[in-house]
Every structure is written in C-alpha cells, then in structure tokens.
Write a structure and sequence with these properties.
Elements lengths: L14 E5 L3 H7 L4 H21 L4 E8 L7 H24 L2 E6 L7 H13 L6 E9 L1 H17 L10 H5 L12 E4 L18 E4 L9 H13 L8 H15 L1
Parallel strand pairs: 1-2, 1-5, 2-4, 3-4, 5-6
Bound molecules: farnesyl diphosphate.
C-alpha cells in the first residue's frame, strides 16, 4: 500500500476496483448460451477502460477470474481461458494506442503456457504506458494474497531477516500483490449481489462500496458516472470523526483558495 489516500470531497476515485458480475444472466435473459454474455463482458471491459481514462481514473482493477471460478463446468472454464487469451492478443495494440499499462495479479502458474506467455508479453509491452494502470485479477483470491504474504514473511523470519515483532501492517502490506499502488477508493459490483467474494480483502478495508443491479455487459459510462457521483457524496473518515474530517477539508479549501 502506498499510504491510504484521503481524497477531498467530490473527488474522483484514483483507484477503482470492479467485480464484473452478471454475464451469464445477461445471456439467459436473451435466451442465449452463457458464452455470449462473456463476449459482451469483454466489450464492456473495453468501454469502461476508455471511460476511466477519460475521467482521469489512474488505476482500474478488474476481477476477471477468481480462485474459486475453477469450480465452474470445465467447458466454461476453457471458454473463459480462450477468451482471455484471444482478448489479450487482440487488444494489445489498442492498449498501446491508449497508453494503458496492463498488469496481472493472481497465481498465474495455473494457466496454460500460451496464456502465461501472452500475459507476460502484454505486461512487458505496456510497462511504460501512463494513461491508466489496468490490473486484471486472474486466478486471484484475497485469501490467497494474504497467505502468500504470510509465507514470505515467515520465510524472512526463518532466514533471520526480520523478527516477529517487526511484522506490522505496513510490512505485511508490502508483500501483497498491489503493494505499490494506492488502495481502491471505490469498489463497484454489478449484477445485484452484495458481497466481496474473496476479492481484495485486505485492500478494501476503507474502500467505499457501491452495488448496482446493472448486469456487467450493460455497464457503461453513464453507470460509471452514477457510481462516481455516489462516491463523491460519501465522507471518508478512516476512523476519524466527521467533525475532524470537515476541519481538515476546510483547511485544504483555505489553502487552495
Ligand atoms: C461473472 O459473470 C463474470 C466472470 C466470472 C468472468 C468475467 C470475465 C469477463 C468479463 C470477460 C473478460 C475479461 C477480461 C479481462 C478480458 P457470471 O458468469 O458469474 O454471471 P452470472 O452471475 O449472471 O452467471
């Protein structure tokens, strides 16, 4: 975690995290097989990445495939893997053109070599892009992330590099997947369900949560604006009182006047 950011009221989120839910229902509503929903989901990804760039959102983290999604029928898992591979290969030039830096978090060794190679190629090719950082969580789970950080710390203690007393929240955070990025300011979940589903468990501690009935393939720039408007209404207190936050905001307003 770079330090927890405290944006002024009415600010845009710097970092937006999304659970893209509802592809299957979108397809079912149209009497189509589920793959059609996932294909439309890819179009929504493209739309939302561009909308985020236009709005100056610096980081977009998308939950593409959870550690638990392997439990889906094999044909659907295979289809999703194919879709990821095709999309990555197809979108690379658009990512470059729009200066999108893409990065993956999650246990990638479970993926086929071809997908791992495409992930590596996309990350390398876009590493210096500056318009937005697009983080794709693939074979990711919040618990997995916490466990792998705990393992790293345990190894370091075993090697005498660290004492147990030196393990602080900051030290822990440095071993997590998003250690070099600010925590998400806003979390959106589409598709009606109101849960975190093992997404960024540690990093969402102070994130504003926004749930919408909109199914992911239908999610567009206007939906994003609605979520950002709701975010702008929230008072982020990070454990302080509302009065303390207002005082800080007054001082900041005074400084910038
Ligand atoms: C949830 O809908 C969606 C997924 C598990 C897959 C998400 C994948 C995409 C949107 C495809 C493209 C992503 C990238 C990054 C290229 P669901 O199948 O759970 O829908 P349901 O709850 O209506 O069944």
């Amino acid at each position: 975690m770079a330090a927890t950011s405290n944006p002024p009221a009415a600010a845009m989120p710097r970092h937006l995290a999304i659970i893209m839910d509802g592809n299957g229902r979108w397809a079912r509503q149209r009497f189509l097989p589920r793959p059609f929903g996932h294909r439309e989901g890819v179009k929504a990804v493209r739309r939302v990445v561009n909308a985020c760039v236009d709005r100056g959102i610096e980081i977009l983290t998308l939950f593409a495939f959870s550690s638990e999604n392997w439990r889906r029928p094999a044909w659907e898992v295979n289809l999703l893997m194919k879709l990821f591979l095709i999309s990555l290969r197809r979108e690379i030039s658009a990512l470059q053109q729009n200066k999108v830096r893409i990065r993956f978090i999650g246990e990638r060794s479970a993926f086929a070599d071809s997908l791992q190679a495409a992930i590596h190629a996309a990350e390398t090719a876009t590493a210096n892009n500056t318009a937005i950082t697009l983080v794709i969580a693939a074979n990711y789970g919040g618990r997995w992330d916490i466990v792998q950080a705990a393992r790293q710390l345990a190894r370091e203690v075993q090697q005498g590099l660290l004492t147990p007393e030196q393990i602080t929240a900051e030290q822990f955070d440095r071993r997590l997947s998003l250690h070099d990025l600010p925590e998400p300011d806003l979390f959106i979940r589409t598709g009606s369900e109101q849960r975190i589903s093992n997404f960024l468990l540690w990093q969402l501690a102070y994130t504003e949560l926004y749930f919408t009935d909109r199914l992911w393939p239908d999610f567009d720039a206007a939906d994003l604006d609605r979520a950002c408007a709701a975010f702008a209404q929230r008072q982020r207190r990070f454990g302080q009182t509302g009065e303390q936050v207002e005082q800080v905001e007054q001082v900041e307003r005074g400084r910038s006047a």
